[in-house]
Input
Amino acid sequence: MNVTSQETVYAWLATKNYKELREFLFRGKDKIKNDPMLSAATKTVEDEFVRLSKEGLTDDDYWYSLEMLHNFHPKFYQIGEENYKSLTLILVNKYKDDLKKAIRFANIFPDEGLSKEVIKLHSETETQTIEHDWQEYIKITHNPIPTNIEASISLFKSLEEQKLYLALRQVFDSYLVYPNVAMSNIINFNAISGQLTPKEGEYFYKSVIDFIIFDQLKGYKPIYFLELDSVWHDLDRVEENDKIKDKIFSLAGLKLIRIRHNANKKIDEQTFIELITDIRSKLNQ
Output
């Protein structure tokens, strides 16, 4: 390219010859640096790009060229500090409905109001990376949290379940006590599926066991299985499911212990401890 005067640059700008302007700004770094008149002309180009953006210009070639001009900075073309900030925020606004693009520009000037808005929206909709000392080897992310609602629930469905869990931990203190374990995680379905009806097979994959004791020294093998029943288990539907669960355990060669207490009488943790201790001694006989 043979550009010898600022008039050529002004002519390209006047005729909206963005292609030639892009090429010159990309390849003319040394010429611009060594020619004050060309430097002034390119400053006019920057100002004009900022002005046109504020007029709501919809020319795709213009917007492509504006983004290219921004990308040239600072390796190929050094944009003035004020114009660089203006062009950056223009692009933030341009792509604010496309957060994956907008965030790249918003992070350049994160303290600006528009950038803060985009960064906040991005944090609410995009997976976030957690910075840590081992980032070279391990990537840690968390999901976006777009709402102020905190919808977690307790692991236990009743206070009695919680008390029984604490009692089991004390009695089986050298084992692992897990509550609410999926049946499919502790029983081999293929070993018993031939003896189950379709309805029973469907229930198998929906069912959980209230408490399971694992022996971590034997490959985390489950060794005790317990259910805490209540008066709700007298309902026809629940009673039918209990029978299916009992059948599955019988077919699997496993003993499922059911604990049922009078709903009108509360059981404290110490009572559960004494009860579980007694049950354990009888199971080991």
About this structure: The mean pLDDT is 88.
